[in-house]
Amino acid sequence: MAEIAEGGGGHDKGGKKRPKKGSTRIDMTPMVDLGFLLLTFFVMTTTFSKPKVMSLAYPAKVDPKVPVDLPKLNNGITFLLTKNDKIYYYLGEFFAPGNSKGMPATTLEETNFSATDPKGLRKLLADKNAFVIKQKELLDNQLKRKIIADTTYERLLNGPTGLKTKKQALKVLIKTDDKATCENFIDLVDEVKIAQIGVIAPIELMKSEADLLKAKL
Q1: Distance CA 1, CA 16 (A)
Q2: Backbone CA torsion sign across 114, 119, 121, 125
Q3: Distance, CA of 130 to CA of 159 (rounded, Å)
């Protein structure tokens, strides 16, 4: 606050009384306190930007000498990347020719990275993951109407038991040979993210899959 200190008056040699002189001093202490209060307010209320990353599930290494029974893949799709921007896929489990289960041998289907092609990757993922996309639209509507909070929305969509991890949600496995490019791998992950797929796992290409891919090429 401002303080005015009055100085003493006096008389000049002619006997006239001189006016009193006032000195002004401003106390800045309240302004400093106010500055810290504002700083604390902005720090506590500001939302810091979070890095936009996608988590990938990497399988643990296993001993190739030990036979392993692969678990059943519910609502899964496996992509095989190779040279010349080629991308192939198959649905569900892989069955080699003459397998012990007596199942028909797996065949590969081809797609592409086009976002407009009806047979392209984006349309394929959207159709296969329609359950999550439709349910997400309902959650988006509830969030927009403020029926649910941001934290509830995030938990229902991406939580451990959220929408993207349900049995009906599409799971994606990505496998590459030694001729595939990193660019194609990143493009595929981007398309998977656009399709709202939550379970993605890069896995090593099996020999039977490599043989099938080679025959396809």
Answers
A1: 34
A2: positive
A3: 19
What is the CATH code of the structural domain delimited by 76-129+170-216? 3.30.420
Dist CA 122 CA 77 (whole Å):
14
Which pLDDT does position 72 carry in this prediction? Answer: 59
* Cα radius of gyration (the chain): 34
As beta bridge partners, residue 89 has 79, 109
pLDDT score at 73:
64
Cβ–Cβ under 8 Å, residues 170 and 125: yes
pLDDT at 203: 85
The domain locations on the chain are 76-129+170-216
Q: Which residue has the tokens 């002189």?
A: 21
Note the Cα 150 to chain centre separation in Å. Answer: 15
Task: Please list the rounded mean pLDDT of every run of 10 residues in the chain (217 residues).
Answer: 50 60 70 84 75 55 52 80 93 87 90 92 94 94 94 92 90 92 92 91 88 85
**pLDDT for position 87:** 95
Q: How far is CA 216 from CA 111, 140, 148, 177, 209, in A?
A: 13, 42, 49, 13, 10
Helix (H, G, I), strand (E, B) or coil at 76: strand
213 touches 70 (CB < 8 A): no
